[in-house]
Structure formats: structure tokens, C-alpha cells
Amino acid sequence: MSSTGTLTIRVCGCSSDGTVQSCNAEAYVLPIGLSMGALIAILACIILLLVIVVLFVTLRRHKNEPLIIKDDEDVRENIIRYDDEGGGEEDTEAFDIATLQNPDGINGFLPRKDIKPDLQFMPRQGLAPVPNGVDVDEFINVRLHEADNDPTAPPYDSIQIYGYEGKGSAAGSLSSLESSTSDSDQNFDYLSEWGPRFKRLGELYSVGESDKET
């Protein structure tokens, strides 16, 4: 922001009484421009204007998203709609079967883990034939006893998986439900004291008791 101009100055030599002794024409270049402070102020204004433009463009590109999310843009998988009343027992499309399946039984069967006994036994000898003159019944009972008490014989203990419905309630005595007296020993006169609604019921029981007594 500066410019230059050419100024022609004629320098003449004069005596003490003002007489021109010599006069030659020479050209001098004089700078004509702004001061350093003015240049700094102009540059600061230009930089500030550029910063404002950049901020404005950035804000226009990053506009705030609306608070209402469209269904097409909502990709979360944990939103469940509870306003679906379903179509009764015949509705087979209003649920996700993968959620209802047991992860251990997706392949159609439950895993079975056989646990073999970790016991060391001496090798058993083969079954000897029944000797002559031995009671067959006693021989069979001995072999049956050996087979029942052999821990290495299959089937082995295995972990079974069943549907778990909860711990249940504690078992109680049902003796209070048992009646130790017969109908003939019971007195139904208290039914007549329950008001007119039970009056007819009391009359029926009283008639039945009177018939049994006669």
C-alpha cells in the first residue's frame, strides 16, 4: 500500500549577496506512503475478517441436528414398541423367535456332558464259564451284584439341563385339610346365623341331618 512519485528539484548555488552562481537540475525520489502503524491496523482488520468468514462457514456446515429423530435414522436396537397388541394366539409374526430360544438348544438338542469316574481299578478278569455242579441262581445273583456295584460300568453320571421354573415354595403339612369327623358329626346350625342369603342352605343341611337321624 505505497506509491512513489518523482520530484524534480533544481539546486542553485548563490553568493552571499543572492547572486546565482550555478544551477543544475537533479532528480530526487521521495517515498510517499502509509506509516507502519497504519499498515499493522489494516493487516489486523484483514485477518479478523478472514477469521469471521471461516467461523461462519464452519457453523453452517455443522448445524445442530433436530431433536426429533426419524425412524429411518434411528439405528438403535434397544427400542421396543409396546403399542403392538398382537393378533392373539394365531399371530406368529409379532415376536422375535431368536429372543425366545434357549441359546443352549438352538441346534435342536441340549448338550450332554458325560462324566467318567476318575477311579483307578485293577483290570478285571474275563467271566469264567459256569463250573459244573454250581447253582445257576446263586451264580447269576453274584454276577448281578458285581455289575450293580461296578462304578466303571456305564451309564455314567451326566449333567442334564431341564426347564427351570423357580425354586418353588416350601413343602407344608396337608394334615389340616384332612377331616377326622364325618358329615354326620358336623353341626351346620351356624349357617342360619349368616343371614338370609344362607338361610336356604342351612335349611337344606338341617333337613339332611334330620333324615339321617330318623
From TrEMBL:
A GO cellular component term found in this entry reads: adherens junction
One GO MF term on file is: calcium ion binding
Return the InterPro entries for the record. Answer: Cadherin, Cadherin_Y-type_LIR, Catenin-bd_sf
According to the record, the segments passing through the membrane are 38-59
Q: Does the keyword Transmembrane helix apply?
A: yes
Pfam families the record matches: CADH_Y-type_LIR
Highest taxon of the source?
Eukaryota
Q: How does it sit in the membrane?
A: Single-pass type I membrane protein
Q: Where does the signal sequence lie?
A: none
Name one process (GO BP) from the record. adherens junction organization
Return the Low complexity bias intervals. 168-185
Where in this protein does the record put region Disordered? 168-189
Major localization listed first in the record, in broad terms: membrane
Domain (Cadherin Y-type LIR-motif) spans 147-205
Q: Which keywords does this chain's UniProt record carry?
A: Calcium, Cell adhesion, Cell membrane, Cleavage on pair of basic residues, Glycoprotein, Membrane, Metal-binding, Repeat, Transmembrane, Transmembrane helix
Where in or outside the cell it occurs: the entry states:
Cell membrane
Q: Which PANTHER family match?
A: CADHERIN-23, CADHERIN-8
Tell me, what does this protein do in biology? Cadherins are calcium-dependent cell adhesion proteins.
Q: Give the protein name, as stated in the record.
A: Cadherin Y-type LIR-motif domain-containing protein
